Sequence to fold (413 residues):
Amino acid sequence: MANALKSKQKVVFKKQSGLGIAAGATGASEIDSYVSVAMPFANSRVNSNVIGANKMDRVSIATEFGIKSGKYSDELQAGKQFGIIQSVLQQTTNAAIASGAQTTISAAATIGNAGTLTWTGGNWITAGFSVGQIIRATGFSAPATANNNHNFIISSVASEVLGIIPIDNIAVVSKAAGDSVTVAVFGKWNYCPDSSQVQDFYSIEVQNPDIDVSMLGKDCCFSKLAIKATSTSIATIDCDFMGLDLEVLDGANSPYFTSHTKLPSNAALSGAKGIILVNGQAAGCVTSWDFTFDTGAKMPKPCITNGKSISSNIILEKNTLTGSAVFGFNSRTLFDYAVNSSDISLILVLAENDMANANAMAFHIPRLLIDFPDITDDSGALQCSVKFTALQYIGSDASIPYTILAVQDTGAV
Fold:
């Protein structure tokens, strides 16, 4: 009998309506290409303490069933993993953010490629715009048509003025007000909320259609998110999950999900395409960065349920974010931040390519502290390696939510 092939394997999942309620068999989402997936069904065993004349165990009881170390690993793609990211952030989708067509929006070039958008008589903050969002404008006439359908990252927000930086380094073009201009946050933007956090549960099935066997995890919760990018590689994502139960299906029962839609398969995001902002300013040489958002998920001691000893819930105990970055060693600034325990902000942007409206993702960490940098040698060029820990934002910028992480995906629908 032939072995199952990874090239045939599919990962299909669907959000449940609640804990203990398996998702329906139709309308699921399919990931048909990925780096790896693991859904090990862990259980502990207790052997008898009785010592017989033959001094060998005769009894072993399985206890504590559950998926304790599930992991989905992939290349990071716009539009593909945002639903999972949103579940880790424990936030439902925010409403669309846009200015609507306005004739009082002007553009101005400032320093370098950066610029501003001024909405006279309007209010960017009450309209929902925030630092770290990717926006696109439409409606600018000549000579500023290059501003249209162009990815800009918001570096600062005041009631009437947005500070913007182009992701592709093509400069903002100045234009007086008068055109009918619309500015919108493209795709979806979300963040870990200060209150009313939502815990999502999923049914996750790993299908092996070539041998007609599948593994169905129930009451699964995505618990940890790790993003990594370097200047010479494709960005990656690791999503850990836990689950309360698992079934192995075959024959007429396999697969469980009978209809599903493939998630978008866009080009992978590149660590070499994008920008990094420290305190709203474009950083110099950055060769790599990574962060991990951890919900502190734990499974309580198991209960006896339907003949199995399984946990009754997955507890998300505490949201934390830690990470690291490698900067070129060109000033004492990072050392001053560390010594003075200064709060700094970090915006990490990744894009598919150099096009003005390329799919992109932005990760905004509005408040973090860095450890004292380590100096390393990279082929003769010195670098500063720093580790950082995020703290909840509690500042006075009304556009920034009280969070440790906000994420935007221009490919999310």
The first strand starts at residue 10 and ends at 15. The chain has a mean pLDDT of 91. Helices lie at 82-89, 333-339. Residues 30 and 340 are 48 Å apart (CA to CA).
